[in-house]
Amino acid sequence: MLEGYTQATVAMLIFPGGLFALMAGLLFKGIDRVVVARAQRRVGPPIMQPFYDIIKLSTKEILIPESGNERAFRLAPAIGLAGSLVCAALIPVSGVWNGISGAGDIFVLLYLLGLPAIAFMLGGSASSSPFGALGFSREMIIMFAYEIPLLATLLALSLRAGWQFSLNGIITYQLAHGPFILDPVMIPAFLAYLAFIAGTMGSGLFDIPEAEEEVIEGPVLEYSGPLLALFNLMTALKLFVVLSLGVTLFLPTVIPGGIVTNILLHLVKCLVLMLVSVSLFRASTGRLRIDQAFTFFLKYPSSLAYLSLGLAYILR
């Protein structure tokens, strides 16, 4: 039992979560900003800018709104960051890490993936800012919208893998039968997952809760200093988590060459997934209204996910 606790602690603090996931997430955010800038014919910031932002914010003063709820205001970013750290530790890395034994259930991840959004809502409501309240309501609505195709996608994957509810079971099935991204039955679910990534990361069409031109960053408007740095770390970690989960669910592969080779392969696949679902999407689209985004998820990603679920059930 002590060995299990030790592995879980290392997973959440060092690898594949913790320090490794934070560094990878910040690096991916830097690459994302550079790619978007180049696609829009701008110079853009350096790739290391997210690291510089964290260092700078860590030296600044924390300002608490006078009419806000100080306890909830301080607690919100810690809750979101902790949830993302646990998620990162639960997700296996093919050929490297099998996840925390007995805990890597897809429905556990389904609940934990919502903690960053809940943290944004808690922080926005605790700030007493009208922009924070507006961002809170938008975050809640769009969260309800993208959770529907995500749940249907996870059910379709589980059914296709023979009612496997563990990530290791889903990976084992794909290593034996081929990745789901090449399975015609699962391609609609993969497209639905791409939409989920864009929605949960607020990219392009779905940059609604924090729209700078409308609600001036919404839930995080009143945040500053180390608390804002925690939110930035949470966002970077969340980006890596949803990308890593997408690779695990649809494109797990193990190649000869050892642990380092498989880690690099995992990072490359996450990077490609980010370019498709976040960077190029953000660089080439505008922003929907919140009612349009809600309708979009109910119509298209949900329909694609349910299509894969129906086909998987018929061909079970």
UniProtKB/TrEMBL annotation:
This is Carbon monoxide-induced hydrogenase, subunit CooK. Keywords: Membrane, Transmembrane, Transmembrane helix. It is found in: Membrane. InterPro entries: ComplexI_Subunit1 (IPR052561), NADH_UbQ_OxRdtase_su1/FPO (IPR001694). The chain crosses the membrane at residues 6-28, 78-100, 106-123, 144-165, 185-206, 227-251, 263-281, 293-315. It is a multi-pass membrane protein. It comes from Pseudodesulfovibrio piezophilus (strain DSM 21447 / JCM 15486 / C1TLV30) (Desulfovibrio piezophilus). GO terms for cellular component: plasma membrane.
